[in-house]
Write a structure and sequence with these properties.
Blueprint (H helix, E strand, L loop, with lengths): L1 H15 L10 H4 L32 H7 L8 H14 L1 H4 L22 H5 L2 H10 L13 H18 L3 H9 L1
Helix pairs in contact: 3-7, 4-8, 7-8
Bound molecules: heme C.
Length: about 180
């Protein structure tokens, strides 16, 4: 009898002392590292320094040099085009529309952006478009802090693709005729 009571009470206190749940769904969230604001992870950089791996944009204030000064470093692969489409549909579509016609969902609440199929933009170098995404242009804001450099170039490949879909180049037509 005594033994049974002792056993029972042990069992009960054992239960009460359970401090950790038996099963933790996402341990990383449960035991997060708990970085403190102003802690060592958040040191402010020394004035004039730049984060490792970051190149300052060299054509700030010089749109006239951007087109000749940069070439698209990415190859037009299907993966790059898919990435460009994905990012375009996140960042550009709301104003420029799916086909770049300037009729996105925020228009006309937001001023009508120009078509991306104008002769002007079609004749622009990739670097000129890069400049607009990076710097903004008049009322179009800069997307430099939101879109990585590689993603900007991928978006430009995608813009070229929708331009060519709208107005196939002589080369595209020749390729289609040979099929
Ligand atoms: C908030 C709305 C908005 C978003 C989002 C936006 N744009 Fe624009 N964009 C504009 C407007 C408005 C202009 C015209 C600015 C001006 O008056 O010069 C413009 C101009 C441009 C031009 C120059 C066209 C020309 O004829 O001068 C290009 C190229 C361009 N945008 C590409 C993009 C790309 C690529 C993205 C996505 C990364 C993007 N824009 C996102 C509103 C937007």
């Amino acid at each position: 009898m005594t033994a049974a009571v002792a056993f029972l009470s042990l069992g009960v206190t054992g239960c009460g002392k359970h401090e950790k749940p038996n099963f933790i769904y996402m341990p990383d969230m449960y035991w997060s590292p708990g970085v403190k604001p102003q802690g060592p992870g958040f040191r402010t950089p020394v004035a004039g320094t730049i984060p490792r791996g970051y190149t300052p944009y060299p054509f700030k204030g010089h749109p006239e040099l951007a087109g000749k000064g940069m070439i698209n470093p990415l190859k037009r692969t299907s993966a790059v085009l898919a990435r460009g489409q994905d990012r375009f549909n996140i960042y550009c579509i709301v104003c420029h529309g799916a086909q770049g016609m300037g009729n996105g969902s925020v228009v006309p609440k937001y001023p009508h952006p120009p078509s991306l199929h104008s002769d002007k933009v079609r004749n622009w170098a990739d670097g000129d478009i890069y400049h607009v995404i990076t710097n903004g242009q008049n009322i179009m804001p800069s997307y430099a802090s939101q879109i990585s450099q590689a993603d900007r170039w991928a978006i430009i490949h995608y813009v070229r693709a929708i331009q060519r879909a709208q107005k196939p180049s002589a080369e595209d037509v020749k390729a289609a005729e040979q099929e």
